[in-house]
Amino acid sequence: MTKRCGLLAPVLTNWVSLYRLWEAGTAYGAVVAQSRNADLAAWMAEHRMSAGELAGAVNQAVGELTGRPGATSERTVFRWLSGENRWPQERQRRALERVTGLSATALGFIPRGRQESVAPVSEKDVEVRRRRFCSVATSVLRQ
């Protein structure tokens, strides 16, 4: 029994550390706060709409667009707000745009595959990396 408790100690220590960081509002908590969808939250606040009400409106719009009832839940809206889901499914996006009158990007969603912080790589950078790789590989082979 003591071995099992010993194995859980590192796991519990990590959870306690994460909780303390979150509670202090630093590191982990700050990262989570940065990824939240503030634009969608602002639209919801401006129109005094709860997550459940938005989910219902989106489901109704999905039904009008596709002829089938939507399956957007309150939890899905919370995932959009938290930034956990940064680009909704196509039918949900179209329904959101219909309900709000705004594009998905204007609502703070980021299309999949777009990495805004990554700069494009130039041909010169590729050539420098190739030369560096060849020189390192050659020196390793000589040894």
Describe the structure.
With 143 residues, the chain is mostly helical. It has 2 domains: 1-34, no CATH class; 36-111. Helices cover 66% and strands 0% of the residues. The chain has helices spanning 2-24, 28-34, 38-46, 51-66, 74-82, 90-100, 123-142. Helix 4 packs across helix 5 (74-82). It is elongated. The model is unreliable at 4-12 and 26-34 (pLDDT under 50).
By DSSP, the count of extended strands is 0
Strand content: under 5%
Q: Helical amount among residues, as a percent range? A: 55-70%
Q: Over the alpha carbons, how many angstroms does the gyration radius reach?
A: 24 Å
pLDDT averaged over residues: 76
Keywords:
0% strand, single chain, elongated, 143 residues
Strand-helix topology:
Elements (H helix, E strand, L loop, with lengths): L1 H23 L3 H7 L3 H9 L4 H16 L7 H9 L7 H11 L22 H20 L1
Report a brief summary of the structure:
The protein has helices at residues 2-24, 28-34, 38-46, 51-66, 74-82, 90-100, 123-142. It is mainly alpha-helical and 143 residues long.
